[in-house]
Structure formats: C-alpha cells, structure tokens
Design a protein that fits this description.
By secondary structure, chain A is mainly alpha-helical. Helices cover about 75% and strands about 0% of the residues of chain A. Classes of the chains: A mainly alpha (about 90), B mainly alpha (about 220), C mainly alpha (about 220).
C-alpha cells in the first residue's frame, strides 16, 4: 500500500485552514465590535450635547422657528458649528 | 478562562500531532494515509458532543428563558457543524486513496451528511428570522427536533444500506486496534474537544457582545 | 380548529384542486424523465410514489398557516385562550385529511398508469402510508408554523423539512418496495417500528413546543 503523504498533508492542511479561518473570523468580529462600540458612545454624547445647545438657543423663540430648525439638527447628529472645537489651536 | 482554554487546546493539538505522527506507527494495511484518522474520527465525536450540548442548552432555554442558554445553543450548533464539515472533508480525502473514490453512499457517510444538512438548516433558520427572541425560540425547537432525529437517521440509513446483514455498529477492526493507535486517537480527541470548547466559549461571548451592540 | 380549516378549504377548494393537478403533472414528469421502459419504472416506483407524496405534502403543508398570515389572523391565533396544542392538533388533522385525499388519488393514478398490482398488499400499504403521512404532517405542521414569520418562507420550509424527513422517506420507500413485491408485513416490521417511533417523537415535540412557537 502506498503512503499517499500528499493526501495526509491535504487533510491536515484543510483542517488547519478551516479552524484557522474560524478562529480569525471570531477575532476580527470581536475587534470590529470593540471599535464599533467606542465611537458609538462618543457620538451619543455629541448628540445630547447638540440637543442641549439647540434648546438653549431656542429658549425664547416662538414655536414655528424651532420647528423649522428641528429637522436639520436631528438629521445631522453633529454638534453645532459654534460648539465644535476649532480645527487648529 | 476562555484564553486559558485556547492555550490548552493549542498545547493539546501539538501533543495530538506528536502522537499521530511521531509515536503512532505506520499502519500495516493502509499505510501512512491512516494518520488522517487521528483528525477525522475525533472531529465527528466532538461534533456530536457539541450537538448534545446544543440540545441540552435548547431545552434549558425553552424552560428557563435565559439568553445565555440560547447563545450557548447557537454557538454549540455552529461549532458542531464546523467540526462535522471537517470530518466529512477529511473523510473524502482519506477515501480517495483508500477506496478509490471521494464519496460513496455508505451508511455512515450518508447519515453524517444528512445530520450536517440538518444543522446547516438550523443555522439558516437563525439567520432568516429578524425578531431576535423569536429566532431563539424557533431555533431551540428545531435544535431539539434535529438532535432527536439523529438516532432515527442513523438507524434508517443503516438498515437502508445493510439490510439482511449482521449489524456491525462498531468499526471493522476496532476491537483489534493496537493500543498505541487508540491512545493517539484519544489524545487527539481531547485536543479537538478542547478546541471545540474554546470555539464555543468564544462564539457565545461574541454573540453576547453582538446583542449588546445592537441593543 | 380542524373543522374551521376544512370548512375554509371546502369553500375555496383552491389548495386541494391545485394539489390534485400537481399530482397529475408529476405523473407526466416522472414518465417523461424515465422513458417508457417498464422494468426501470417498476424498480423506482416506490421512490417515485413517495417523492410525489412528499412534494405534494410540502406544498400543502406550506400553505397551512398562509391563510392566517394573509388575513392577519396570526395575532388572533396567538391570543386564542387555552391550550395551544389544540391548535396544533387541529392544523395537523386538517393537513392529514388533505394529504390523505391527494395520496389516495395519486396511488390510484399510479395503479392505472404504471400498471401496479396491489393485490393483497393494500392493507399493509395503507398502514405504511398512514404512518408515513402522520410523520410528514406532524413535523411539517410544526415547521410551517415556524417558517410562517421568516424571510424567504417558501424556500426555507422545504429546506428545513426535507433533511429531517430522511428517516421517514427511507422507511416508507423500503417498506413500500417490499410490500409491492408481495412480501409479508412481518418482513418490514423493523421499518414500521422506526416509522412509529418517528411519529411518536415528532408528535411529542409538536405538542410540547407549539405554545412556544405561538408565543409572539
């Protein structure tokens, strides 16, 4: 009976590739989630900050102006330009 | 804990390779191609162990509704399917030089293939239902059906192929297996079982993190 | 519940009619796929018969919860007071009646067009068909309810169902083959036991888990 070492190598290589790929996929997904979670927290904070700015600036105005402003602030969950830190110190 | 499991399984795999290629002798009738067995046979044992774990976790989830049990069932069935896939692929690679064909509709091959497809369908169902809670419940029911179906599949396929023949449920020649080969098999089984447990633990943790991120 | 389904079915008749035509069309397909060779046809006849039963069963069962789905009665189904397993049994009974009608017709068509000699095999064959149909319908009703709310429902249902039904298919085909060769019923006793075991397992799971499926 011949030894067929190529088949043995193929079988072990295949298993190594399958298990390795699964292992790498788990690791990659974990890192993705970690990076996803971090900026998400920042963005959430920025949104509340922007909301606070808006209510402050709209404090004394009549209803219809605040309504016209509302979509722009909710559609762009970013801080108001004025509240952003300057690009260069 | 999970990291420790990972290092242990890595060590175990090295030990398994040493046993399979260093200690175990060249098999007399099949030659060195028989060394695929040290990967092939433990893989199916681990897969079935994982399905058993998934079965228990499914029942526990339906009874107690702890999200952890659902994640464990999902992870166990996914890893079990992975190991069963490795088992089928390595079996085909072993079969080509030994039997002269990649695949035959032999009883054991067929039943393993049917079980593999059943659990692929399980993973498919998980992905096809949007409501997370509902997906968990339905998958648990399917997991119970699929696991209880395994013995039915085995018996039916066995009778289908070998009717009117004395059943030899044990592998031919397994009673005369040299103890070195048996030890090598068991060492590799322990290594792959550790690897499977490590994968399941890590997958379950990942599922928890995913749920948290999506919540 | 079964009564309601049968009533709706009798009034519309659409599923039944379509299934009857489907079985007729299958007959043609089998004939054209295999050619006029009588011997070859006879050898694969049990398999073809059960393939027909399972295909029509899949089509019929896949529609079992479609009426509820289309008419927005799913919530009403969920809110039904009392034991949910009664709903399961009702749906199961409705599907069984439907499948029995289609299978009777298909068997008759096979006898006429493929020249099958039933002879004294009919009682045994009826037993095998009953056991097989209960198995198909028991697990099929469960899966139909599960896939009713899923994406790609029409595709997912057979994908889930067919691999699980492998033991039932093997048992019924092998038993039918032996019975058509006029072997005694005792020769297929092990298959009958397997089919009965499968029926018990599927029915038990269906009864125990159906309230979980109709939870929300």
């Amino acid at each position: 009976m011949p030894d067929n070492w190529t088949y043995v190598a193929a079988a072990y290589a295949l298993a190594a590739v399958v298990f390795g790929a699964y292992w790498l996929r788990l690791g990659r997904r974990e890192r993705e989630l970690a990076t996803l979670a971090a900026p998400r927290g920042n963005r959430g904070a920025a949104r509340t900050e922007a909301g606070a700015v808006r209510t402050d600036s709209n404090a004394g105005r009549p209803d219809h102006t605040s309504r016209s402003q509302a979509p722009s602030t909710t559609a762009h969950p970013r801080p108001e330009p004025a509240s952003r830190p300057p690009l260069q110190p | 804990m999970t990291t420790l499991l990972g290092w242990l399984s890595g060590l175990g795999l090295v030990a398994g390779l040493v046993m399979g290629f260093g200690v175990a002798p060249r098999e007399v009738t099949q030659g060195n191609v028989q060394r695929i067995m040290y990967l092939h046979v433990p893989a199916v044992w681990v897969a079935y162990l994982a399905f058993m774990a998934g079965f228990v976790a499914s029942i526990a989830y339906l009874a107690r509704r702890r999200p952890g049990a659902d994640r464990l069932a999902h992870a166990a069935c996914e890893v079990g399917t992975l190991f069963l896939g490795v088992n089928i692929a390595t079996g085909a690679i072993w079969g080509k030089p030994t039997w002269g064909t990649w695949w035959t509709w032999d009883a054991r091959l067929t039943s393993v293939a049917v079980v593999f497809v059943m659990f692929l369908a399980y993973l498919l169902l998980r992905g096809a239902i949007d409501d997370h809670d509902r997906a968990g419940r339905y998958a648990a029911v399917l997991g119970i059906v699929a696991t209880l179906n395994i013995p039915l599949v085995h018996f039916s396929v066995y009778w289908w192929r070998t009717l009117h023949q004395p059943p030899s449920l044990l592998k031919p020649g397994s009673s005369t297996m040299p103890s070195v080969i048996l030890t090598a098999l068991l060492v590799n089984f322990a290594a792959l079982a550790l690897l499977g447990a490590y994968f399941i633990a890590r997958r379950a943790r990942l599922l928890a993190a995913e749920e948290e991120a999506l919540a | 519940m079964a009564w309601k389904d049968l009533l709706v079915e009798r009034r519309s008749k659409e599923t039944l009619n379509a299934l009857l035509f489907f079985s007729l069309a299958l007959l043609f397909v089998f004939q054209f796929a295999l050619g006029p060779d009588r011997e070859r046809l006879a050898a694969v006849l049990p398999g073809l018969l059960w393939l027909g039963f399972i295909l029509s069963g899949v089509l019929g069962l896949g529609r079992a919860f479609l009426v509820e789905h289309q008419n927005d009665c799913w919530e009403a189904l969920l809110l039904t007071p009392g034991d949910k397993s009664a709903i399961y049994l009702g749906k199961l009974a409705g599907s069984l009646v439907l499948m029995a009608v289609v299978e009777t017709l298909m068997l008759a068509l096979f006898v006429v067009f493929f020249n099958v000699e039933l002879g004294g095999a009919l009682p045994g064959l009826a037993l095998v068909i009953a056991l097989g149909t209960i198995g198909i319908a028991a697990v099929g009703t469960l899966f139909a309810a599960m896939t009713a709310q899923a994406r790609a429902r029409e595709l997912l249902f057979p994908v889930l169902l067919l691999p699980v039904l492998v033991p039932v298919l093997l048992g019924t085909v092998k038993a039918t083959e032996a019975l058509l060769l006029h072997e005694p019923l005792a020769a297929v006793a092990h298959w009958l036991k397997l089919l009965a075991a499968a029926d018990v397992v599927y029915l038990a799971i269906g009864l125990l888990t159906f309230d979980v499926i109709l939870e929300g």
